[in-house]
Amino acid sequence: MTTGSRARSFSAAAARYAASRPSYPSALLDAVEEAAGFPLAGARVADVGAGTGIATALLHARGARVLAVEPGDGMAAEFRRRNPAVPLVRGDGNRLPLADARLDVLTYAQSWHWTDPERSVPEALRVLRPGGALAVWSNDPDTRVEWIADQQTRIEDRFGPGWYINERTRPHPGLAFTNRRLRWSRRIPVDTHLAKLATHSLFLIGTPGTGDFLTAERAHLTARFPDGWIEEHYVVDLNLAPRRP
Questions:
Q1: Which phi and psi angles does 179 have, rounded to 5°?
Q2: Mean predicted confidence (pLDDT) in 219-236
């Protein structure tokens, strides 16, 4: 299964994705503002790979003049249903449908790893104004927490390593990334956690055995958390690079 196929798999599960995927802590946008050196309120922002609009909605609420960019049909339809006041254009980070040097901030929330950096980095440099910023972030399971580490081990034992795709940034002329890591958590029902797990691409592309795995995982988690509630712990990994003048 190609990376492109995995990326396209989300559209069929857009409603489930929107309902079960976590949002981000408010401290994330505080950190973006601090690293960028200017407030998001009034800033011209494009959120690329916006999906159902989880990050876009937060940027909009912060007062950013935000535009969403999304390639997937199902995700775009769900985005428009949930965020009717936010403009959306179809496209991806490898060829942005945006004008040169117009943006203050370009954001990728859980979506940078679906791009080809040989194409998406020059595109970021093209659309950002001098002094603007590229912000790339992801919500990663906090494996310092025992039950999360145990679950990761069970998944890798069954399906092999690399099932969870982390955001990757690397040095590039014109960009110098700084990193911030923010820890947070949310308390949700076990069923919501399993629904969230099922929206990762490994479970959406028809990998053999995923249905049986989720059934076994439900039994395992129900035994471990008999009240039916789980505290999911995350590390938001934020990488921000200003566009040099």
A1: -120, 140
A2: 97
Q: Which residues contact 29 (CB under 8 A, 6 or more apart)?
A: 40, 58, 59, 62
- Tell whether the model's pLDDT for residue 73 goes beyond 80: yes
Cβ atoms of residues 115 and 92 within 8 Å: yes
What CA–CA distance (Å, rounded) separates 25 from 137? 12
Written as six digits, the tokens of 5 are: 């196929």
CA distance 96 to 119: 10
Give the containing element (helix H, strand E) for 61. Answer: helix 54-61
Distance, in Å, from the CA atom of 5 to the CA atom of 61, rounded to the nearest integer, reads 32
- The two three-digit tokens of residue 118, written as one number: 């040989």
Distance of CA 133 to the CA centre of its chain: 17
How far apart CA 241 and CA 24 sit, in angstroms, is: 20
pTM of the model: 0.92
* Fold assignment, 3-142+165-189+233-242: Rossmann fold (3.40.50)
Using the predicted structure, report yes or no on whether residue 138 has a pLDDT greater than 60.
yes
Share of residues in the chain with pLDDT > 90 (%): 82
- Provide the residue type at 100 as one letter: D
110-135: per-residue pLDDT in tens?
Answer: 999 999 999 999 999 999 999 999 99
C-alpha–C-alpha distance, residues 69 and 108, integer Å: 10
The tokens for 77 are: 């339809």
Share of the chain above pLDDT 70, in %: 96
Q: What is the pLDDT of residues 217-227, one digit of tens each?
A: 999 999 999 99
Phi, psi dihedral angles at 170 (to 5 degrees):
-150, 160
Q: What is the pLDDT of residue 201?
A: 84
